[in-house]
Design brief:
Elements: E1 7-12, H1 15-26, E2 29-34, E3 37-41, E4 48-53, E5 72-76, H2 80-89, E6 94-100, E7 106-111, E8 117-122
Parallel strand pairs: 1-4, 5-8
Antiparallel strand pairs: 2-3, 3-4, 6-7, 7-8
Pfam family, one: Glyoxalase
Protein name: VOC family protein
Domain VOC: 2-123
């Protein structure tokens, strides 16, 4: 098997709201879109983020009404404090403050308008 690209696909109620959030605050751009669907990309992300409207009939029946709860979109960044300051200046509520884990991970979290958790991470903490 050869994998040529990767994506994470999340079911949300308002595709435009989640897409707009990643576009505005995280520099993604729309690669494809249709009614109830948007695929977002960044040249440096290593994967696309796809949003699907809950209830979309093209989804299998046992997935249609699922919501992206409990999932975390985690992005490793070079300047964690700078990104934290930028998002705060843009008025994005920080839903988990900057934390340092004993294994060296440092992270903070925000949520998009559909409740999808976006976590920014670096590995500069004490190990």
């Amino acid at each position: 098997m050869k994998i040529t690209s990767s994506a994470v696909s999340l079911n949300v109620d308002d595709v435009a709201a989640s897409s707009g959030f990643l576009i505005k605050h995280f520099g993604f751009r729309e690669a494809m879109a249709a009614d109830g669907f948007a695929s977002l990309t960044r040249d440096d992300a290593g994967m696309n983020v796809v949003f699907l409207r809950r209830g979309l009939e093209t989804l299998p029946a046992d997935q249609r009404d699922d919501h992206a709860r409990g999932l975390i979109l985690a992005f490793v960044v070079d300047d964690l404090e700078g990104e934290l300051a930028r998002l705060q200046a843009e008025g994005v509520p920080i839903t988990m403050p900057l934390t340092v884990e004993e294994w060296g991970e440092r992270a903070f979290q925000v949520r998009d308008p559909n409740g999808v958790i976006v976590q920014l991470v670096d590995w500069n903490g004490a190990v």
